[in-house]
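Continuing from the previous page...

OK, I double-checked the sequence for Immunity protein 52 domain-containing protein against my notes and this is the correct one:
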Amino acid sequence: MSAVTVAVHWWARSETPQEQAERWLVLLARLTELSDGELAEWRWDVDGDGPGPLVPRSAADFATALQAANTHDDVDVIGWTAHVVGRRQDGGYVQVWISAGGTNEHSPFFVIVKLFPGPGASASPLADRLAETLAALAGAWDPDTGLAYDRELFKTVKATYGLPAPAPRCGWAVYLSENRAARVPGDFTARRLPTEHGGLVLDLAASPGETPATETVLAAHRALAESGALEPMPVPATGAKL
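Thanks. Re-ran it with the corrected sequence; updated structure tokens here:
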């Protein structure tokens, strides 16, 4: 089974390491809650066979670690980056990769959460709660757009609509910031999960936890693109969100 990805993106938004640390800890706590406590221990994702150090539980200590790992001169432009991993007892694990806090107006900042099943496991951690996981990312980081997908779905949507890499697109679930959410057609069929900051997650699954058909995702993308909800951001970006 291939990895499942849940990701959100936004554009230039200057944030201190302390502000980012607070967002990080909110997100990790929500992922632990969504996993029913299975992902209770978060560690820095490091090279090598052994586990990395435990992630600090206080925002001040997390901010210190974030600064120590990002010492380049232009960090305030390109942002701070960190990788964290949480493991389930059956070997399934979740990788969290975040790049945030910078003022670069030419490429988006992001949270990328990858879900991997354990050996012989039928499902990845959080695989039955993708829309809720997307809402957790959105609530913690106030992004512009987001989605849940696997590699095959991503390739199919990209090829069907000729999308460049940073363009907003649909997945099995899609997140839209407040101005985008206001453009969703009233008759658009999806489970709707309002989030903090006025955004909205649209879950395309027929029932919570199911995987929508690729045809459903393609039709949803067409409808949202035609309504303006997936309008690309101008580059250089004029703000963090549309």
